[in-house]
Amino acid sequence: MKKMKSTSLSEHWYSPLQDAVMSFVPGNSTYKTMRARSARTGVLFILPFIIGFLVFMAKPMVESFIMSFNDVTLIPGQGYSQSYVGLNNYKHAFTVDPEFNKYLLEEVGQMAINTIATLVMSFVVAVILNQEFKGRTLCRAIFFLPVILSSGVLPGIEHQNEFYDMMAGMAEAMEESGVDLSATLQDLLSLSGVGGQVFEVVFTMIDSIYDIVMASGIQIIVFLSGLQSISPSLYEAAEVEGCSAWESFWKITFPMVSPLLLVNCIYTIIDFFMKNDNRVMELIYQVTYQDFKFGISAAMSWTYFGIALAFIGIGAFIISKAVKSYE
Amino acid sequence: MSKSKTVFIGENKSFWERNRRSGGYLLKRETKRTVVSIARALLMFGLCFMIIQPLLIRFSTGFMVEQDLYDSTIVLVPRHLTLDNYRIVFDLTDFPNSMVNTLWTSLLVSVLQIISCTLVSYGFARFEFPLKKFWFGCVIMLIVVPPQTIQTALYMNFANFDIFGIFKATTGKPINLRTSILPYAMMSLTCMGLKNGLYIYMLRQYFKGVPTSLEEAAYIDGCGTIHTFTKIMLPDAVPTIASCFLFAFVWQWTDIFYTRNFLSSYSIYSNQLSSIVSRMARYFSADASKAVIVPNGRQQQLIAIGVLICCIPLIILYCFTQKTFVQSLAMTGSKE
Q1: Which fold is adopted by the domain B84-332?
Q2: A41 and A115 co-located in one domain
Q3: Could you read off the pLDDT of A142-185 as tens digits, one per residue?
Q4: Which of the pair, A141 or B149, is modelled with greater confidence?
Q5: Which of residues 116-135 of B touch A (CB under 8 A)?
Q6: Domain at A248, CATH number
Q7: What's the distance, Cα to Cα, between the start and end of chain B in Å?
């Protein structure tokens, strides 16, 4: 069989580029081939994306990356001027700014916990919603509602006034004096002395269950569609062979759905990092539009983006390893 | 006739008789099933209630007068009904005006986004072209990079908009585009709007799942690429595209990031809502220049009404289009 890929005689690192040029040059020997035609139409179809990406994504990204190493001042009507300051912006963000470090640590910690909790939660809910019971359609509809209710401006809005923190503090004090089931349980379990740290994490998850449910609408649907694509004959065969429901869950359901873990994990992390009630985001916005410190805000957002990317990488790595072992 | 009637062994026997014959297995199974279904019902009810409850509370507190808020004997049903709160929130958020603006901007933007995303995703799903992997990597990057990273640079770009210095050469000054919807419309048309990478990804997954034989048949019959796309691919893709459109519309409706950055000169509801607290302080003072501190409970109440007004159209929309909504997500998980 002939090689499908190469039209040029020898493969170089630049041969895709060469192909790209060749298929657009009329009169070229390969211009009229099916391949070249398909390439031309394909590029035409994605042309909006190419233009958009170059103009509204790549260019601003490069600019903002440069900005993060510069001191930027606005000149009204003219644009802006930059002067190179090296890593000073990053230094300022980490050492001078009183809140950036704190918020960053908080958000990252929260994210790590929330991502795991969201994945577990949405998986469990999807498994339940996949079973037959009365009112299933209604339940599905309700579980998907958070996609609307927790998007954009809505989730953070009630927390944004300064009284809120005070009120939250008071509520906590009240809870401590009264009977709080989760707190009591927490005390009991931490008394037993085994893995106090672990319990703390678990209880943070339980306390933030509302946030987790509100963040897992899309993930539930993705898992659910994965579950529905498993053919029922697999379960039948397993049952005939004497497999219990528990076993068939771990031997069939989990491995079949686990590729979706990766998609969901990445989605959850991105979703969390881009939320508007995220304090780092608020801070960056404030630095940009109220203090007009463009260089520093660029440095902050690049730091933030770097951390997000690292997390996505770690998540993807762990999950792809874990999933592979099932195959 | 006799074939259709299945006769179970021991059908007419009592439950206990059957249980005895099965050696206690039947009872065990039935108990297990009941316990599981009760536990499931409890869990489902609890979680559903948790999602719905804030809406109910917002709805009921919206009709309360201020003194009802601090009355601990009142939980859900207000004692003194009033519609004043709604009037105040309407005033605060510039209501009919901002809603109309939100509606047309969201519609325009999401239509533009979905048109371009559909074209692009079809291109990615069906054609082989050089550097395809690279460009698809760029789509993934679009999903991953938070727009906040580039907001400063975008702000600068549009505040002093210029294409290769043309405007500067002709009018002496780059134009400030931040005051119109144009920049965001341009971004939408080129797939750079809110979460557009995701829509491209979802639609591409759909198009990849459609067998190519239909298009090949059309091609053999002399149908051109554009015709094949519009006459054969698009009609089948309508539910998925509609689903992506709904996402785009709903997320645009509540979006604050792009609205704040690009549409700040229009009165958009989400924008009004996000700054409602500061406007409240001015609204309640007799003298417009001085701000008073609005009691916290009252603030929460008014914000809750604002949120509710924002949600209600979306929830109504969701009720009617629930099936369509979920459509495109079903493809997301399918493997490459």
Answers
A1: MetI-like fold (1.10.3720)
A2: no
A3: 888 888 887 777 776 665 544 444 555 555 554 444 455 566 66
A4: A141
A5: 116, 119-120, 122-124, 126-132, 135
A6: 1.10.3720.10
A7: 50
Q: What are the φ and ψ backbone dihedral angles of A87, each rounded to 5 degrees?
A: -90, 10
Percent of chain A with pLDDT over 90: 4
A68 falls within a domain:
no
Domain co-membership, A31 together with A102: no
- B11 by Cβ neighbours in 10 Å (0-12 / 13-18 / 19+) ranks as exposed
Co-location of A215 and A132 in the same domain:
yes
For residue A87, being part of any structural domain is answered with: no
Rounded to the nearest angstrom, the minimum Cα separation between A209 and chain B is 9
Residues A50 and A105 in one domain: no
Pairwise CB contact (< 8 Å): B124 & A46: yes
Closest Cα in chain B, distance from residue A197 (Å) = 27
Domain span(s) for CATH 1.10.3720.10 in chain B? 84-332
Domain end marker among A9, A34, A59 = A59
Sign of CA dihedral A120, A125, A130, A132: positive
Quote ipTM for the complex.
Answer: 0.81
List, for residues B213-246, the tens digit of each pLDDT value: 888 898 889 888 888 888 888 998 898 899 899 9
Q: How many domains does chain A have?
A: 2
Shortest distance between the Cα of B80 and any Cα of chain A, in A, equals 24
What's the pTM value of the predicted model, to 2 decimals?
Answer: 0.82
Burial bucket for residue B294 (CB in 10 Å: 0-12, 13-18, 19+)? buried
- Host domain of residue A14: 1-59
A147 and A21 fall within a common domain: no
Token pair belonging to B248:
């785009």
Determine which of A49-63, A303-317, B85-99, B172-186 has the lowest per-residue pLDDT on average.
B172-186
Interchain pair B296, A167: CB under 8 A: yes
In terms of DSSP H, where are the helices of chain B?
15-21, 25-61, 66-70, 84-92, 95-126, 132-144, 151-159, 166-171, 182-189, 196-209, 213-220, 225-227, 234-254, 257-262, 269-274, 276-284, 296-327, 329-332
On chain A, the residues whose CB falls within 8 A of the CB of B153 are 59-61, 63-64, 67, 298
Q: Rounded to an integer, what is the distance from CA B264 to the centroid of its chain? A: 21
Residue A139 pLDDT greater than 90, yes or no: no
Q: How far apart are CA B29 and CA B19, in angstroms?
A: 10
Tell whether A86 is covered by a domain: no
Question: What pLDDT was estimated at residue B131?
Answer: 82
Which two tokens mark A224? Answer: 């659910």
Taking CB atoms and an 8 Å cutoff, what residues of chain B touch A213? 47, 50-51
Question: Using one digit for the tens of pLDDT, what is the confidence trace for B40-60?
Answer: 999 999 889 888 888 888 888
Whether pLDDT at A223 is above 70: yes
Asked if the structure places residue A121 within a domain, the reply is yes
The tokens for B99 are 């809603």
What is the spatial distance between Cα A304 and Cα B145, in angstroms, rounded to a whole number?
A: 10
pLDDT digits (tens, 9 = 90+) for B268-321: 888 888 877 777 777 777 655 666 677 777 777 888 888 888 888 998 998 888
B182-196 residue pLDDT tens:
888 888 888 888 889
Report CB contact under 8 Å: B256, A276: yes
Tell me whether residue A4 is exposed, middle or buried, using C-beta atoms within 10 angstroms of its C-beta: 0 to 12, 13 to 18, 19 or more: exposed
A156 & A24 share domain: no
Which residue in B has a C-alpha nearest to residue A21's C-alpha? B130
Those of residues 56-115 in B touching chain A at CB distance below 8 A are none
- A47 in the same domain as A170: no
Q: Which of B148, B277, B307 sits opposite A301 (nearest CB)?
A: B148
Q: Are A222 and B333 spatial neighbours (Cβ–Cβ below 8 Å)?
A: yes
